[in-house]
Amino acid sequence: MSYPEARYTGDSGEINVVFRPADTPADVRSPSGARTHFVATSASTRGEFGLYRMDMVPRGGGPGPHFHKTISESFFVLDGTVRLYDGAGWTDAEKGDFLYVPPGGLHGFRNDSDEPASVLILFAPGAPREEYFEKISTVARMTEEERSAFFIRHDTYWTD
Q1: Which end of the chain is more exposed for a tag (fewer CB within 10 A), N or C?
Q2: Model's pTM, two decimal places?
Q3: How far from 157 is each of 14, 53, 94, 95, CA to CA, in Å?
């Protein structure tokens, strides 16, 4: 494996970094109290990746088995215990554990514990996932047609 083709062809570098302080408020707060932070969006990384931090409440649940056709998804547990589905079964992942899911890989995640949990979620390449996190709590009020269009628009295919 080798490095990809150069995407920057200048000789002196640029001032173009993006900094997000740790105390930046959550971008989305769910009705259950879970918080999602848009650490790096597809727009801020020019489509290279999206990085989100999800702070999950105790017994807060999470999405069941699903897959994506266009993006990979990776999980890195920052704190607590997060149940991760790897296509074959559920595993209790703890601080420092990592799960990589290539496109098409069955996966899910949730917090079934009595303690809060926090996880970094990386999507690559970047996709406009912000609307997904902003509106996921409203799908129960959508018609079946609206719900189906929402999940297809966000490259989410359920297996249950």
Answers
A1: N
A2: 0.92
A3: 40, 22, 26, 28
